[in-house]
Amino acid sequence: MEKGKIKNIQKTKTFQGQPVKQEYIRDAFEFSYSMAFGDGFHRNKRSGGIYHRSAYEVFVNTFRGKIAEFVVSDYFTSQGREVSQIDLSIMGVGDWDSADLLVDEIPISIKATKHFGQLLLLETKDWNDSGQYIPNLSHEKQSNYDYFILVRTKVDIPDKSNSLFSKEKLKKIIFEKHILAEISGVLSNCDFVNQIIKYKYIIYQNDLLNGKIPMDADNYYG
């Protein structure tokens, strides 16, 4: 496969994560395990991507994302804001939640990445030129998000594994770890549309991030 251009990040931000509450870890684990190994459904590849994720990888990504939702919810609640309840319902094929969170009735999209990540990435095939989330347009769900919030998480478990873990074994591994998270940045929909989409801030499929991480799909970045 031909490798793409090298994209280097010139300015980086040090991770300053705080411990995640145990009840959030517990609820995120139960949800993610059901979505990956139980009756739920999560996409096994990204929009425009070619790499198919294993059930274990789906678990890790879902767990990271749900932890991010809890952290953002906890922050806004502590600020006295009205925050919608975290959705922990197990959804099948063709069904998904409308928005990650509503804060004072404002729809928020929450994006999670690893603790060393430096970019908020949004798959280009998921968004139209008006900054609307395309998969939701035909399902009468929330397609306009006022803000995107990036949360970095430090979860010291392998992203990939050839081992088959029982639920109890995987739970033990998770709860033995010191899980940290940090709200790292925010992007308004206005800036997403008028800067990132308009001027094509895109990292393309097969581009190498910092010369070593190949991109699986085309992504807007901020």
Give the helices and strands, then pairings.
Layout: E1 6-7, E2 18-19, H1 22-37, H2 55-78, E3 101-103, E4 106-114, E5 121-123, H3 134-137, E6 147-154, H4 167-175, E7 180-188, H5 189-197, E8 202-203, E9 208-209, E10 213-214, E11 219-221
Parallel strand pairs: 1-9, 4-6
Antiparallel strand pairs: 2-7, 3-4, 5-11, 6-7, 8-11, 9-10
> Compute the gyration radius: what is it?
17 Å
Extract low-pLDDT stretches: 41-46, 93-97
Spatial order of the strands in the main sheet?
2-7-6-4-3
Largest sheet: number of strands, sense, barrel closure: 5 strands, mixed
User: Which outline best applies?
Assistant: globular
Proportion in β-strands: 15-25%
Please tally the β strands and state the result.
Answer: 11
Distance between the termini: 27 Å
Can you walk through the features of this model?
This protein is α+β, with helices and mostly antiparallel strands and 222 residues long. Helices cover 28% and strands 20% of the residues. The strands form three sheets. The chain has a five-stranded mixed sheet. A three-stranded mixed sheet has the order 1-9-10, with no helix packed on it. Strands 5-11-8 form a three-stranded antiparallel sheet, with no helix packed on it. The longest helix is centred in the first third of the chain and has 24 residues, at 55-78. The radius of gyration is 17 Å and the shape is globular. The two termini are 27 Å apart.
